[in-house]
Amino acid sequence: MNLPRMRVSGSVVRRWLEPGIGLKRWLLVVFAGELLLALAGALALRQVYRDYDFSGPGQGLLYLLTLQFLPYWIRGLLVAAAGAGLFLYGSWRAVRVLMGPFLSTEGDQPLVEVIYQKRFLSRGPKVVVIGGGTGLSMLLRGIKEHTSNITAVVTVADDGGSSGRLREELGIPAVGDIRNCIAALADSESLMAELLQYRFPGDGEASLGGHTVGNLLLAAMASVQGDDFEEGVRQMNRVLAVRGQVVPATGTAVTLHARLLDGVEVTGQSEIAKSTRIDRVWLTPENVAAGDDARRAVEEADLIVIGPGSLYTSIMPSLLLPELLAAIRNSSAVKLYVCNVATQRGETQGYDLADHVAALERHTGPGWIDVVLANNRFDAKRPGSYAAEPVKLRWPPVTIFPDSPTPRLVLEDVVDPENAHHHESARLATAVIRVYERESFGRHRSRVSRTA
Fold first, then answer.
1. Same domain for 313 and 333?
2. Lowest mean pLDDT among 55-64, 311-320, 405-414
C-alpha cells in the first residue's frame, strides 16, 4: 500500500466539510444509524453480562473473548476503538470503489477535489469573459476556482504566427487565443498547457515547423466536424474536459483594420498592435454573425467581464460584432470592464484609465458598462526594459457622450507583485467575484423595493 497517499491533510478534511458539497447531512444520518445499532448491541451485551458468567470451568475461551477479566470502562474503550477503525477503513474503501470510474478520468486529483468541482463550483454564478491574449487566460485560471459556469468568448482576429499560417492555409478563424484559454481552464492545467503550447521546432518552412500542438488539434477537429469551426471548438472542450467552455466570438474568419489619428489605415491585428495614436478600428467582412454559443452564453450570464487584454486587438474585435454587442447591452447581467495594469507599447502607449474607457465608449456607445475595475498598486517589479508603464488612474473619462452615466470605479490590488505588466490571477478573480456579489446584491434589493 502506498502510505503517502493514505495521509489526509487538514485542507482536504476542511474541503470535505465545505458548504454545498452535500456530504455532512448524510454523514449525520449514517452516524445516527450507527449510533442506534451500537446502542442495540450495547443493550444486548449488557443483558448477556448480567445473565451469564463465563469464568467457570471449561469456559476459558468465552471468558477471554468477552473480556470479563478487564474493568467495564476498558472493555468499552477497546470495543469503541475497534469499531471506529473498522467503520472508517470500510467507509474509505467503499467510497474508493464507488468513485473509481470518476477518479480514473480525473487523473491524480483527490476525491474531495472531484466532488468539490462537480457540486460546489457548479452552483457558482454564470460568468462570461470576453477578450483574448494572455490577459484573458490569466483571469480564467483564477475564476475557475470560484465557479465552473464559465464561458470564455475569444477573439478570432489574430493573423500572426501559427494561427495566421493556419488561417491562410485552411481558411479557418484564428485559434491561438482559443488554445490558450482551453489550456487555462483544463483541470490538469500544467500538463495540458505543456502539451497544447508545445511548438514544433523550425522556422515555419517545414510542414510543422512553428506550429503548436493545440493549434493543429483545433484545426483538425474543425475539419473532422465538416469544416464547422464552432462545432470543432465545442468538441475540443468536451475532449479536453475543460472547466466551463471556450467559444469563438464568431465562426467566420475576420480581419481587423485601424485608422490612425493622422489618417493612415493599417490592416491586420499584428500590425495594429505595433501602431500608436489609433483613432478607430473595424472588422471585415462587415456585420459578421456572432457565434451561437457566445450569444447564448451572454443572454444567460449573471456577470459579463470585458478584459483584461489588449484594448484594440484582443477586446475590440469581439465587441465590434453587432449581434454580440447587442446581446451584451440587452443583458441584465452585471457588466464589468477590467482595465489592464500597464500600457502596451504601440496601441495603448501613453493611455491612462480614462483613455481606455473612452475608447470603449467611442466604439460601442455609452451607458452599458456598470463597473470599471482598475489596479491601485504601483510598486510591483518591472521586468526587463519593456517600454510600458502602470495605467494612471485619471477618472472620470472625457466622453463624447456627456449625458451618459459614468461607470462606478472600483480600485483593487490586482497586479502580480513580481511583474508589473500582468495581473495576478487569484487576486484578480477574487476582486471580480467581490464586485459581482456587491453589484448583484444591490440589484436584488432594488428589484425587491420596486415590487413592494
1. yes
2. 55-64
Domain assignment of residue 284, yes or no: yes
61 lies in some domain: yes
Answer whether residue 1 is part of any domain: no
Task: Domain of residue 102: give its range.
Answer: 18-118
Residues 411 and 430 in one domain: yes
The three cell numbers of residue 151 are 464561458
Q: Is 212 helix (H, G, I), strand (E, B) or coil?
A: strand
Return the C-alpha cell found at 406: 459614468
- Who contacts 446 (Cβ-Cβ below 8 Å, separation ≥6)? none
Please check whether residues 70 and 131 belong to one and the same domain. Answer: no
State whether 137 and 99 are in the same domain: no
DSSP state of 186: B
The pTM of this model reads 0.75
Strands (E), 332-436: 334-338, 371-375, 408-412, 415-416, 419-423
Per-residue model confidence as pLDDT tens digits over 406-434: 999 999 999 999 999 999 999 999 999 99
Q: What is the CA radius of gyration of the chain?
A: 30
Cell numbers placing 230? 464552432
For 345-372, the pLDDT digits (tens) are 889 999 999 999 999 999 999 999 999 9
